[in-house]
Amino acid sequence: MVRRPLRPVALPDASARVFEHWLGELAERLDDADCDRSELCRETLYDLHYPGGRAYHDLLEDPATPPATRAALLALDPHHITLEPEYYHEIEPEKYARVKPLLWLWQSFDRSPLGGGNVDVGIRLRRILAHHVFKTCGSNFKCFQFVEFSFGYNMEVGDGVVVHRHVLLDDRGGIVLANRVSIADYANIYSHTHSITDQVDVTSATTVLEEGARITYHATVLAGVRVGKESMVGAGAMATRDVRPYHVNLGIPAKSIRVKPNAPVEGEVTLDSALRRKGRDS
Ligand SMILES: CC(C)(COP(=O)(O)OP(=O)(O)OC[C@H]1O[C@@H](n2cnc3c(N)ncnc32)[C@H](O)[C@@H]1OP(=O)(O)O)[C@@H](O)C(=O)NCCC(=O)NCCS
Questions:
Q1: How far apart are CA 272 and CA 268, in angstroms?
Q2: How confident is the model at residue 273 (pLDDT cuts 50, 70, 90)?
Q3: Most buried residue, 54, 123, 137, 215, by most Cβ within 10 Å?
Q4: Structural contact between residues 142 and 162, judged by C-beta atoms closer than 8 angstroms
């Protein structure tokens, strides 16, 4: 293995200034308790998707505007779209109404030319939004593109958390991501489940990823599972039961195959057999 920390990448000064200005203005508007978040969402998406166009309402109300364009214009306003979590029985409508415009802005930004895989601006915008969507959000939250939430307001996120592209964070029953948690591409974290006999019998259970836990690519963590401190769920694994601190769990269902060599002694006492100490002894 070779140590390969991320290298710094600089943007041209002129573009960096434009991004800084835009994001600063957006953050300021969101910090204002009286901010109309739906209007902010609609205006921002209009500027992103129809740059330099006519005034939004002019275009929308002009009979010459084709119906598909009018439908697309309406969809920039969160009042005129529905999102899947709105259909969930246990939704808290007031809480959701506060976050819906920001979740729609987040998702729609990701599909804009400015968004998607554009790392620098994308991470900074999502960090601003996360602080206004999540129940709690620590410092330096880093989130790549096409990440989806259920309610968003049931997310509790610590410091230095990283979420990579195409992750699903289903926070219906609550998700806790403690400090330094890392979730790799295409992973799924659930916090609700359905009865096998009755589809509408839904159980919610908070899913907790403890400090430093790593969920690696394409892995799934089911509702109510606690992924222990500094543990790892390997690529493609399905965590159906708790993962012990410092353990590496692989497979479907995910089972411990070893303990990380840096586990403290108290971590070791949770081992089932000497075999699992392979990682430390070799
Ligand atoms: C957990 C992981 C690192 C392997 O850990 P490891 O302790 O070095 O395991 P090894 O490579 O020594 O493999 C041990 C055994 O597990 C198997 N194995 C390895 N990864 C596996 C996986 N994800 N699922 C099932 N089995 C796996 C190996 O084939 C090997 O089996 P064998 O003994 O029958 O040959 C790797 O599976 C993994 O998940 N990598 C993800 C990388 C990552 O960090 N992604 C995040 C990027 S942001």
A1: 9
A2: very low
A3: 215
A4: yes
Q: When comparing pLDDT for 140 and 267, which is higher?
A: 140
Handedness of CA 45, 177, 119, 127 (dihedral sign): positive
* DSSP conformation letters of 34-91: T--HHHHHHHHHHHHHSTT-S-HHHHHH-TTS-HHHHHHHHTTSGGG---GGGG-TT-
Give me 96's structure tokens: 């959701």
Mean pLDDT of 143-168: 98
Residue 243 DSSP class? B
Q: Residue length, the chain?
A: 282
The bridge status of strand 175-177 relative to strand 192-194 is unpaired
Which token pair is 179?
Answer: 């400090």
> Confidence class of residue 166 from pLDDT cuts 50, 70 and 90?
very high
Question: How high is the pLDDT of residue 266?
Answer: 65
**pLDDT > 90 fraction of the chain, expressed in percent and rounded:** 91
Q: How far is the CA of 236 from the centre of ligand 1 (A)?
A: 10
**Would you say the CB of residue 233 lies under 6 angstroms from ligand 1?**
no
Cβ–Cβ under 8 Å, residues 166 and 147: yes
In short, whether 191's Cβ falls inside 6 Å of ligand 1 is no
Give, using CA atoms, the residue closest to atom 15 of ligand 1: 257
The pairing of beta strand 214-215 with beta strand 232-233: parallel
Q: Which two tokens stand for residue 171?
A: 């926070």
Q: Which CATH number fits domain 135-281: 2.40.50.140, 3.90.1150.10, 3.40.50.720, 2.160.10.10?
A: 2.160.10.10
Determine how many CB atoms are found less than 10 A away from the CB of residue 56.
17
